[in-house]
């Protein structure tokens, strides 16, 4: 393997000092355009690659953003990460990803480690927004932090999703099809989406004459296995729900497996609604009705908020961007049938 070129070799080929090469690398305005062109040509000829870590130490910036998420295997999280990365790359930043596996201690550890001259800012998809440890870590953070769809008790920039209107629209649609026993597999109450969806689900159901909307409501951990277990519990009850809303992407796959194992037909025996559009939603048989969040816009908005904070570091945190959600109706929902 050939030895990497050094800054001194670039300087010699361009006929300038090493300091001038350093100024070109760091985009200093104190370099004439003709000189800059010579240096860039020498860098290209020698295939010189600046040391990013050394640059960061000299400039107090790393051009790197930390992205914190709870589960790297969740397709939703992966799509958000991809959107964030694309927006950051367009602004000249790299992204460093850390997956916590829903471990609060790991979450706090990564928040601390990211700030040790590793990143210029953090974008976080937190697993538990009620943790005092996490709230304190964000409040004391030495670098800007943006959270995605979380409510925290401390000032922080946030990208929020609209949940109430789309859930109300969905419940109204199902009740209009004759459903009165509607199951809900929701997320844990320690995150904003689950609380907002549950409030809208209950208030709309009660307004439309559904008795005891919490009867078939569960909040399993967001894994395929727990989605399977919760769906089996609901769908073997007497009487069982005639419609099922699953709000977690991972729970959805487990619930579909339970429905298949029980020999139930969608929508003949059960109307089914999933969460967050992905490549499988429209390809399944039947295609799934879903509550869809604009994942691309969520990632773009989070990156934009962070870039704004980096450009105006003295601005007080607390800016918010709200992304709308939509209900995509497909053939997995139909009229209610008696099950008792």
> Helix segment count?
12
Domains (count): 3
Largest sheet: 6 strands, parallel
Rounded to an integer in angstroms, the radius of gyration calculated over CA atoms is 25 Å
First-to-last CA distance? 73 Å
Predict the CATH topology of the largest domain: Rossmann fold
Order of helices and strands: HHHHEHEHEHEEHEHEHEHEEHEE
CATH-level-2 architecture of the largest domain: 3-Layer(aba) Sandwich
Please name the fourth-level CATH homologous superfamily of the largest domain. Answer: Response regulator
Strand runs, count: 12
The mean pLDDT is 91
CATH class of the largest domain: Alpha Beta
Query: Structural class of the helix and strand makeup?
Result: alpha/beta
Strand line-up of the largest beta sheet = 2-1-3-4-5-11
Instruction: Bin the helical content.
Output: 40-55%
Shape: elongated
């Amino acid at each position: 393997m050939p030895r990497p070129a050094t800054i001194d070799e670039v300087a010699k080929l361009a006929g300038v000092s090493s300091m001038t090469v350093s100024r070109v690398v760091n985009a200093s305005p104190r370099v004439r355009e003709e000189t800059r062109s010579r240096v860039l040509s020498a860098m290209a000829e020698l295939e010189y690659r600046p040391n990013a870590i050394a640059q960061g130490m000299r400039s107090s910036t790393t051009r790197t953003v930390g992205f914190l998420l709870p589960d790297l295997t969740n397709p939703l999280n992966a799509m958000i990460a991809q959107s964030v990365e694309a927006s950051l790359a367009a602004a000249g930043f790299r992204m460093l990803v850390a997956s916590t596996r829903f471990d609060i201690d790991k979450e706090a550890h990564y928040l601390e480690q990211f700030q040790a001259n590793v990143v210029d800012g953090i974008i976080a998809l937190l697993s538990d927004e009620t943790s005092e440890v996490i709230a304190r870590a964000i409040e004391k953070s030495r670098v800007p932090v943006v959270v995605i769809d979380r409510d925290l008790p401390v000032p922080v920039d946030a990208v929020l999703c609209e949940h109430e209107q789309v859930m109300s629209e969905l419940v109204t649609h199902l009740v209009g099809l004759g459903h009165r026993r509607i199951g809900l597999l929701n997320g844990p109450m320690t995150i904003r989406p689950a609380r907002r969806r549950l409030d809208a689900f209950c208030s709309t159901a009660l307004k439309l004459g559904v008795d005891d909307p919490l009867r078939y409501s569960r909040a399993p951990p967001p894994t395929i296995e727990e989605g399977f277990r919760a769906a089996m519990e609901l769908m073997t009850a007497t009487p069982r729900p005639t419609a099922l809303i699953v709000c977690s992407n991972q729970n959805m796959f487990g619930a579909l497996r339970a429905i298949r194992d029980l020999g139930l037909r969608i929508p003949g025996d059960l109307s089914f609604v999933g969460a967050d559009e992905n490549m499988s939603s429209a390809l399944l048989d039947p295609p799934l009705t879903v509550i869809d969040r604009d994942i691309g816009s969520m990632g773009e908005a989070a990156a934009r908020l962070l870039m704004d904070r980096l450009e105006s570091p003295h601005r007080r945190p607390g800016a918010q961007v709200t992304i709308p959600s939509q209900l995509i109706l497909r053939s997995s929902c139909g009229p209610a049938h008696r099950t008792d």
